[in-house]
Every structure is written in C-alpha cells, then in structure tokens.
Amino acid sequence: MGYANFLYMKGELSLVAIIVILFIYDIFGSKKSLQYYQPTACILLLIHTLINLLPGSETVAFGGMYHATPMGSIVKTILSIGTLLVFMQANSWLKSEQIIIRRGEFYLITLSTLLGMYFMISAGHFLMFFIGIEMASIPMATLIAYDKYRNTSAEAAAKYILSAVFASGLSLYGISLIYGTTGSLYFEEIPAGLNGSPMQIMAFVFFFVGLGFKLSLVPFHQWTPDVYEGAPTSVTAYLSVISKGAAAFVLMTILCKVFAPLVTEWRAILYGIIIVSITLANLFAIRQQNIKRFFAYSSISQAGYIMLGVISGSALGMTSLVYYVLVYMLSNLAAFGVIAAVERQSGKIMIDDYNGLYGTNPRLSVVMMLALFSLAGIPPFAGFFSKFFIFAAAAEQGYYVLVFIALLNTIISLYYYLRIVKAMFINKTETPIEHFQTDAYTRISLIACSAGILLLGIISAVYEHLNDFSFGM
Amino acid sequence: MEIHMEYYLVVSTIMFFAGIYGFITRRNLLAILISIELILNSVDMNFVVFNRYLFPEQLEGLFFTLFAIGISACETAVAIAIIINIYRNIRNIQAKNLNQLKD
C-alpha cells in the first residue's frame, strides 16, 4: 500500500483537520479569542462542505476497505450542511452560563460523530462499517448527557447507550455468522457466498435489528421518545436528522450491495416493518403533549417512509431516498430551530404552550408552519415532492398495497401536524409566550431551512442531479 | 486430540443468549452492562473460532476481534461515566428509578 491512498479520503481528511484545529483552538485559545469560537467552527465547516461539494468519481482504496461512491459523497455533503445548521441553532444554548465552559467539546464530539458517519457511508468492509457506526453512536451518548446537572439528560443518555450497545452486539453477532458462512467480510465478496441457508437468514435478521435500532423503526423504537425528550434540544435535532439520514443511506447500500441474493427475504421483513412503523408511530404521535416526544414519534413514522425507498432497491429508490432525507432534514431542523428558540426563551416544551404564538411571534410561527406542512406533505412545499417520489419508487416495484397504507397514514399524520398549527394560529390563551428576538445565527439557519422547504420541490434540477449518481441492485 | 468447533460455538451461543436474558431481566445498571459485555465477548469468540477452524489461511476474524474488543472497552467506559453521572444525580443506579421520562 502507499500513503497515496489517503488522498482518496478527501472528505474525511478535511473533517479530521477541522477537528484538530478546533481542538487546539479550544485548549490554547485565550479567553478573549475564544469568543470567535462559534464563527470559526461554522466557517471551517462551511469551507469543508464547499471543498467536497463536487461528487468526484467512484474510488476504491486500501484494498477494498474504503469504497467511495459519488452518491455517498452527496449524502456526506447533505449531512455536513445539516450539521452546520445544527451548529448555528445551538449557539445561544452553548452561550448559556452553565454550558459555556464546556462549549468546545460540543463541536468536537459532534464532528467526530459526523466523521463516524462518513466512514460508515464509504465502508467497503464490515470492520470499517462497524467502526464507523460505533464512532457515530458512542460520542452521541456523551452529547445526550451534555446537560450534566439535569437528571433527565443523564437518564436519556443511559437509555441511549445501553440500547445502542445492545443493538450493536446483536448486529455483531449477525456479522460473525455471516463471516462464518461466507468466509469474507468484504462487501464485494460476500454476495458470492450467500445461498439463503437458514443460518444466513438468521444472521441477516440479527444484523438488521442493529441498524433498525439506529433508525428507530418499530419494534426497535422504544428508546426514541425518552432520548429525544431528555436530550438537549439541539442534540435532539442532530440525532433525529443526521444520524438517521446516514443510517438510512447505509442500510440501503448494504441491502442492495451485500444482501442482494437474499432480496426476497429482506423485502418481506421490510414490508412488515414499514407498515408497523408508520401506523403505530402515527397513532402514538396523536396522544403526545410534549413537543419533543411528539417529534420523536413523527421521526419514527418518517423513518418508515424512508424505508419505502429502501424496499424498492432500485436506482429510483435511492434517488428518492436521498432526496427525502434532504427535505426531511431541512423541515425537521426548521421545526427544531423554533422549538429550541422557544425553549431557550421561556423553558416551555408542551404543545399547549404554543397557544397564541402567532400573535406574539408571527415569523417563528410561520417557519414552524412551513416545516410542519412540509413534513405532512402538503403540495407546494418540498415535503410533498419527496413523498411523491418515494411512493413512485415503491409503486414501480409493484408495492401498491404498501403505498396505499402509507398514503392513508399521511392523512392521519396531517391531523397531528395540524394540531400544532392550530395551537399556534387559532387557539387563544391569556398567557402566550412573549415576543422575543432570536440571535442572528438561529435566524440565518431558519431562513436557510425555509428557503430550502419552499424551493427544493420546485427546482427540479436538484432531483435530476441526484438521479445521475444513484445506483440500485 | 482436538476439540471440535461445535463445542466452542455452543459455549458462545449460550453466552450470547445469557447476555440477552440478563439484559432484559437485570435491574441494576451495572448488571445490565455486564450482560452486554457477555454478548460482545460471545461475538469475539465466534469470530476467533470461525477464523481458526474454517479459514485458517487468513486473519480477518482475528483482526475484527481485536477491534471489537477495543471498541467494547470504549463503550463500557462511556456507559460507566454516564452511570456515575446518574449516581450523582439520584444516589442509586437501579433501573426502576430511571422513570422521569415516560409517556
């Protein structure tokens, strides 16, 4: 091997460089210079995103351990844009009195989870995949426990790490059985050894359970509402969007590349899981009062929709999956930006607290409304188009019943998304949340999200650009 | 006389399912963590045994085991740090007391 192989890992290298620079800055920066920490982090991440904007070509490095695809690099760009938005929204929280002393760690840990997702996306070997997924989930637990003096933060972190480690243990057991039956761990070589024996199907199910936990599909979703509620709001935003998007894309590539010979089996498993995830999560979301728990259930059902792209297994499915992740990311981050701003200002996180928000904070309410309409899939907004494409991808493979059930569920979801809109615009209350100004960073990120929601669906070039790079089974 | 591969696999399978049983039934966070360690160790054993008996000409399984051991150590470290944090907050580590977040 030559060290020249490292040059293929452009995205990872520049991310490592950012982590090192921020680490040194955090330790050695004087108190006065540290006030520029937040802008530095944002600008560095922006530069990193711009450098890696071009998808590049398909490369294999380190004897097949690292396998970069153009689609993978587009997903990486989407994830780093999302991280940038989270950084901007987290600023006012990180400046608060108790947190500011530990502010640097937030950026470092977040970026290292992002690095883990990068490795996971361009893995060509189960070892790389495993290291990536652990690198993404272990630091995440420390992020969730970030509010050191708040009980619920530690409780959520304990629930997260115990279930994440348990899931990765199950996943590893599956990988070990796959190794035993096929004799290889390279993604390229495994399909040749897969013959659909009961042992291999069991191994696949174990492996799938591990990723199901990451994606919080029903029946592996029990940790999600608790963790989302207990974690600091900016971390919840990161958890619900970035790590879920990465896991969805990785699941699709692994199912299409590695487990292609078992396609009938995994389609049958996914079929059931999609129906259960979408339906149960929708029914639970209706009765939530806490807005963070509400978004937890909403994200479970959105993950079910994302799986519709996976089940199709075609190039069209991959395009619509990545497009869905992009739109879902912008909508969810807009919603969480508003939630974080309101929580920061008034400490209120119940849906009833949003009564009369339009009267006092009209602009925030409109952003929230755009986000909710996009999540529910109402036509002029991007969410409608992403749902449309993903339904088209599944219907193309003949899953008409499944698409019909998903469509029915869209109507149920409309009910509970509109509940928040109704609280903000129609419900009256004596004591609404008072008028307040959000800081400049939050405002910029909310404007970016809203612009994305409004424009992404209309500008078809985005979708066509994605379509050029996608691949299926 | 050589020990057959099946004997190792039986031990590792028993360890794996004992770990799952423990994860579900234990009430103390540290005991839950120990159960998880059982699961991870059974996986390591699987890898080594498959490598040694089925594919002795390569070292993939052994390397995987080394990395898996390292990573499970990280997981334990972070989990224990979080458990200590819980102990500081509520003065015990019983799972039934982690009940502030619920529907």
The oligomeric state of the chains shown is heterodimer
As a percent range, the share of helical residues of chain B equals over 70%
State the total count of DSSP E strands of chain A: 2
Total number of beta strands of chain B: 0
Strand content of chain B: under 5%
Task: Indicate the CATH class of chain B.
Answer: Mainly Alpha
- How many angstroms does the end-to-end distance of chain A come to? 30 Å
Shape assignment of chain A: globular
How large is the radius of gyration of chain A? 21 Å
What class, by secondary structure content of chain B? Answer: mainly alpha
Low-confidence stretches of chain A: none
- The N- to C-terminal Cα distance of chain B equals 59 Å
List the helices and strands and how they pair.
The complex is a heterodimer of chains A (473) and B (103).
Chain A: H1 10-28, H2 37-51, E1 59-61, E2 66-68, H3 70-94, H4 103-121, H5 126-144, H6 151-182, H7 190-193, H8 198-215, H9 223-230, H10 233-257, H11 263-286, H12 291-312, H13 315-346, H14 357-360, H15 362-376, H16 382-396, H17 400-425, H18 440-455, H19 460-469
Antiparallel strand pairs in A: 1-2
Helix pairs in contact in A: 1-2, 1-4, 2-3, 3-4, 3-10, 3-13, 3-18, 4-5, 4-10, 5-6, 5-10, 6-8, 6-9, 8-10, 9-10, 9-12, 10-12, 10-13, 11-12, 11-17, 12-13, 12-16, 13-15, 13-16, 13-18, 13-19, 15-17, 15-18
Chain B: H1 5-25, H2 29-53, H3 60-90
Helix pairs in contact in B: 1-2, 2-3
Structure description:
The complex is a heterodimer of chains A (473) and B (103). In chain A, helix 3 (70-94) runs antiparallel to helix 10 (233-257), helix 8 packs antiparallel against helix 10 (233-257) and helix 12 runs antiparallel to helix 13 (315-346). In chain A, strand 1 and strand 2 form a beta hairpin. Chain A has one domain (3-469). Chain A is mainly α and 473 residues long. Chain A contains 19 helices and 2 strands. With 103 residues, chain B is an all-alpha fold. Helices cover 75% and strands 0% of the residues of chain B. Chain B has 3 helices and no strands. Chain B has helices spanning 5-25, 29-53, 60-90. Chain B is elongated, with a radius of gyration of 17 Å. Chain B starts with a helix and ends in a 13-residue tail after the last helix. Chain A binds chain B through residues 126-127, 130-131, 134, 138, 141-142, 145, 148-149, 151-152, 154-159, 161-162, 165-166, 168-170, 172-173, 175-177, 179-180, 183-185, 225-226, 229-230, 293, and chain B through 16, 19, 23, 29, 32-33, 36, 39-40, 42-43, 46-47, 50, 54-55, 60-61, 63-64, 67-68, 71-72, 74-75, 78-79, 81-83, 85-86, 89-90, 98, 100-103.
